[in-house]
Fold these 4 entries.
Entry 1:
Amino acid sequence: MAESIGKGVFLSGSVVYFTLRVGLDPKQVGLGLSAAGMSAFISSVLFGVIADRVGARRLLVMLFAALAVGFGLYALVDNAFHFFALVVVVGFIEYGTGPTNGALVGNLVPAEERVKLKAMMRSVFNIGFSIGIGVAAVAALSQRLLVLIPLTTAALMASAALLVTRLPDTPSRPVPVGFKRFAAVRDPRFLSVVGVSTVLASHVTVILVTMPLWALNRTSLPHFLIPLLLIFNTVFVILFQVRASRGADTVDGAGRLARRSGYWLAGGCAVIAVTALNDDIVLVSVAIVAAVLILSVAEVMQAASGWGLAFGLAPEHAQGEYLGAFDLHVITQNIIGPAMLSGLVIAFGFWGWLGIAVAALVASALIVPVARRGEVTLARATASATSP
């Protein structure tokens, strides 16, 4: 909750803070935030490996403490050079908290309860993030109050670090003979699961970027409905994420759930495609609302299936490394998805939406077999490493 409120405050208010208080150009802010996102390709896996070696709880305390310092330093930034340097460092550290947090869950929670706990944590995260947006909105009311955006986030990250110290500590698991560091990113079968999951995670881009851009530029949907639809999506995740995680605590169950999420994703895109054929305001409004509902179902299913696949395909001694590598499917979608999918539908309209739907169906057909092959590879590697 502390982390999510802090991220809600900063992510929703950072553009306002850097442009109005620091005086940066919007393009400079966008470039800096993009550079921070690119650092995730390295930090997600790297910090996962470190978590397995030094202990997830210890590393998570250090990361939150470092973030508290980093966000606090934003209050002193007064030029573009300092902004670029700090935003990349903070982004690099921030993207390491995900796999480290997951490794801590893997160390403290029995295998059959990990996916359910992650679902509960995501619901809590959405609640906290929403609260953070409200705090940022209050801070944006006055030029003087804008400095509260980084300072509030810094204080909440420090609180998160203190809270993590209250959790039990577990020793790092010994690495069996035969396993190598960075094995996750060198395993083609595991990476194939990550690749297919990247396509199934397209709901992230569609809900947050592609659908709003399409609705604003190519439909008669009243503009005030768009933020309301995003609020509806957030509430839906809060209410149904835990329920959607049922059955995803095994690789096979998670694979089947991922397959169903692809069907829902394809259905949502097909419904939006209808709005390219008829611009009647009533039809467009009904179709967009229905599509957001369908895509929200796809979102909670795919998120739960992703946790099940990540935990299920990760060796017990390398939870952080494999979880960090699996996070690349969301990181990749966040970086290349907005430009690719939005460009596709804006350029090709109806056929662009159908193209996304077809890609989702292809990914649905592939996810179960590639997940099973990844599970077989893990079983063989484990047997080989532990045999005399």
Note: The chain has two domains: 2-164, 184-386.
Entry 2:
Amino acid sequence: MSVGIDKMSFFSSDMYLDMVDLANARNEDPNKYLIGIGQKKQAVIPNTQDVVTMAANACEKIIDDDNRKKIDLIIFGTETGVDNSKSAAIYLQNMLGLSRRARAFEVKQACYGATAGLQMAKEYVTNHPDKQALVIGADIARYGIKTPGEVTQGGGAMAMVVSSNPSMLEFEGPSTFYSDDIMDFWRPLYRTEAVVDGHYSNDVYVKFFKNTWDEYKKITGLSIDDFKAMTFHLPYTKMGIKGLRAILNEADEDKQEHLKQEFEYGRKYNENVGNLYTGSLYLNVLSLLNNSTDLQTGDRIGLFSYGSGAQGEFFSMKLKDGFKNDQLADQIDTDLKNRKRVSVEEYERIFNNWIPIKDGDINLDYENDSADFFLKGVKNHQRIYGRK
């Protein structure tokens, strides 16, 4: 029996900020953002969307009457939680009408949370093959107006159904992991914006990738030649390139060119959406599956997950017959194409209208939100959600 990802989906805002516009407004050479950072567009998240609503909007694309009855484990990976006690998974369970006879909880370790959830789901389904698990990676990346990290903002949600005999991807073999207590990125409880040491974080990211990759090769006997593609956590796509370059010297020239080409397919969604934190790796995977022209059933892909603070993990998955969902791929392409381009001034207004961390009722202008699930406001310390 195999266990893996049976379905995947993605949701983000219907607005974006063009990185050329941002560069011009910040008196920067656009190529610093387009090439140096590797980003073209950035999702702009309105205050009527939070991680719960984005997750619900992603899930409705892959939840049907069949798997709704089978899902009895809901794991929500996020570092943009809506409550310091109650998990986003409980809200999501209710919004989607999932079984009350389910475990539902939230996982936090920076951008690694969804991977932790995925690995827990793997073990659960292995022991309960007639059941399914729903794993979420949803976040909103905020660093602040005119900060060095501004170009690496974004947001969205990835949803994954884990099952036995999956249609898309199956887990293969062991994982390798590495952790250390470091301060490369963090967000204190009193802030909605992250604090980051960018250069340090880049160095740690590559170090953790090399550590987990080298350990993986030792315990499995596999090499770079055994992989059709490598996927990465992509807070910005140039970071993944740095990781890939760290091991390219292990391959011959033909293999190097192939891996670089697959990376280009894999970063298509990320470079047009921006940073999803916990969802970034899995958006990279979905982009690879939907856009590559050379993948085949049985191909092995590598996945490197990284969460600042810090935790890294490397594992592999093999492609199943239904790894590409053409209908969902077309829908994602259409949604990205039809987004509204906002000006820098509009983006700054939306950013500054974010729900503050303070007491008080809030009514939001949700009528203009085109998504099926949305946040209406806050009343008596409770978030009020709505559905079209």
Note: The chain has a mean pLDDT of 97.
Entry 3:
Amino acid sequence: MRKISLKLGLLFFVFVFAIEMSLFTALYVTLVDAKIHEEFEHLLARGNNHRAVLESHYDEITLQHVVMMESEAETDVAITNEKGDILYFSDHIFPIAKRWIDQTKLNDIPYDGKVIQDNWKNERYIATASPIRINGKITGYVYMFQKTSSIQRMINQLKHHFIIAGMLSVGLTIITIFFLSRAITIPLIRMKRATEKLSKGDFSVRLQVKGKDELAQLGKAIQTLAKDLEYLKKERNEFLASISHELRTPLTYVKGYADIARRPTLEEEERAKYLSIIYEEAEHMQKLVKDLFELAKMDQHSFQIEKEPTPLCLFFKKIYEKMYPAFQTKNMSLVYRCDEDITVHIDQQRFEQVMMNLLDNALKYSHQGSTVFIDVRMEKKNVMIMISDEGIGIPEADLPHIFERFYRVDKSRSRTGGGTGLGLAIVKEIVEAHGGSIYATSQCRKGTTMIITLPKGDEHVHDITS
């Protein structure tokens, strides 16, 4: 992760550095141009001020006074007549002044003055010219000169300040990028370590995720994945343990009674008894394998549901007729009530499997002489199917778990409890595959009601009792 931190840091630095250098360069050029323009304007304004004084008092004393003023300043002055002949000038400026004055076209100088030398990079002086007009007639010119060394010094100072500011800016940028790249990569490092643990089968991953950005969402997704994998691992272990237990018991019976049945001294009557037990255990294993196969297909999404329009009342009448003899054998009553003209789209074979399982449970856990009710009715836009019995009921603590695989209310898993512990799990999967839902309500020693909700329906009542 140090590599990605370094890459991110370098990438950020290159972009930020490029932006900073562009901004610094633009700012530097703008400031230099502004400062140089300011120097030219200042020099021209100084010349225009002298021109104004001379236009009011054009005499020898005033001319000498102007020259004397400039001798105390950083600028120099030269005053000419209307033809460009130099009359008065500052010390040491005469050769420079004469060269530039001779090159100047006097007719091109406006009354507001003009910069006649602006090459501050290569020349020793910059210069301006301002015409002296008395009574509407040009009587001379005021030439102002300033050494370019002062401008160079000013620009060098400005450059020095910019270099210091740039170095500080780059340093602060590096520090800021260092902490920002660490702030970004530290969560990524934690996520990498978490995924490494997950890949090794350690699902006890806990990520402290804060915020709502993409990194936080990724962290939450990894945390959720870890919890889901941990849950699946636990479920798988429990599932395998349950299968092992469910298969071990009948296999123990089969092996034990087979050993006994093989004894040559065993009487035929006892041999038949033991062979009968072996057959029952083999049937139990066959049912268990069948249920496991059904659940495996559901988990792999290869479980096919082929829906077709089905009149529910006719469907339940067939279920009633099929189950009625079993209830009669146990001296129990089966009652169903169905609203007429209710048609739903279901897989009849699969849904018959649901009803047979639920009715078989009601028959198994109810007392002789009790009644099991099937009630089919419309509730708004849904069809409600309720299977109610008057049996032993389900404890409140067990009720939320009865649709889990291999869960049994009978914790001893006694053989008399019957079933594989997979029936209700299969029922739930089939009902949900139809777009419906199933839940249970129960009271101990008073009975249990299984409630299935499916889309669609109509009304009217039809009763058959036994």
Note: Confidence is low (pLDDT under 50) at residues 413-417, 457-466.
Entry 4:
Amino acid sequence: MTAPLMDVDLGHHLFSRLYEIGFDGRGMTRPSYGREENFAHALFMGVAGQYGLEVRRDWASNLYLTLPGRDRTLPVVMTGSHLDTVPCGGNFDGAAGAVAGLLVLCAWVKAGFRPERDTTLIVTRAEESVWFPLSYLGSRTAFGLLEPSALETPRSDDGLSLRHHMQDCGASPDLCGKASVLDAAKIDCFVELHIEQGPVLLEADVPVGIVTGICGSTRYRSAVIHGQYAHSGATPRCFRSDAVMAGASMMTALHEAWKQAEADGEEMTLTFGVCRTDEAQANFAAVPGKLDLVIDIRSRDEALLERVNGLVIQQARRVEQDYHVRVELGPRTCSTPAVMNADLQADAKIIATSLNIPFVSMSSGAGHDAAIFALQNVPTGMLFVRNSNGSHNPDESMEMDDFMEGVRLLECLLRRRAVSVS
């Protein structure tokens, strides 16, 4: 079969409707297990119904859209991503992969192509862990990896539990640990398309990246440094318990450790995404007595993550002594690095070359649902599409021509796996 024609107008329609659903006046806000995420899932279900795709949802309301294969006993080919966003995010993070998968299945239906094995688009719930401090929530529920106790986790904006929001969205949280879930042995492969969230493709001037691996993370989302409020003019340095200076010293030391790791040829990132004093009590005439801090460390090297985590603890203890403060790091959350399947990478390179699509191989510093599939021993691949201005912000800027190049590559890669019966 020659490659079917991808419907770019359907792509424009889906992105336009997602924009209308999520626009908050500045960017996109489709909260995990929220009203807007529900509307986005309904949009995909509606289009799938028009094309005669099978539609089902699991106990956690992950969505599965399937074009049945000739032999439904064969392991299934899967693609997909998510439709939730961070607050005031962009319209392409996650959504690009979900739209791409739907375009492929709709094109196959329109061309009258029936694969040898089932081919399924999964649209996961709640990938963005800014809403719940649980990495890869949707894909973890799909594989039965969520502990029932996690259902009581509050959502960041309203404090209501994951259980509450699941029920409100039509899910069945009481089935956690009891309902049937994905079986990795029955999945032939999983390939996720996603916008790149950094500048690599832009700087290389190529539209597509073939991902080699996905970083894991160590995070402290609610660290607090407790000092003592005091008069800024009447308190000499030796009598101060300055939470801000303790935090600055700790952050600077960790940043120096990052620079040294890079000098040693190691790959990681370190980010302090929140650093704030108490609006109600801090002022220009007071020594700050409290600092809230978040710490985000990422790497494909699990040993490096552990080593840097040890440095975080060591630096916390040091500044307690040096600045007479108390450091509460709070709970540590982690995700495991994942390696993408070598055969899928090789196939993607061969196909991209045959289609005259320029590409580079690259790692992913951000986390994705593909990591969970890979860690369940499902052969997993990932494709990036060039995108300006990063992600998780309203200025995400993916060109439709670049996107359709990624869709063409995804379609050929999925079709190669879907027609194989070996």
Note: The mean pLDDT is 96.
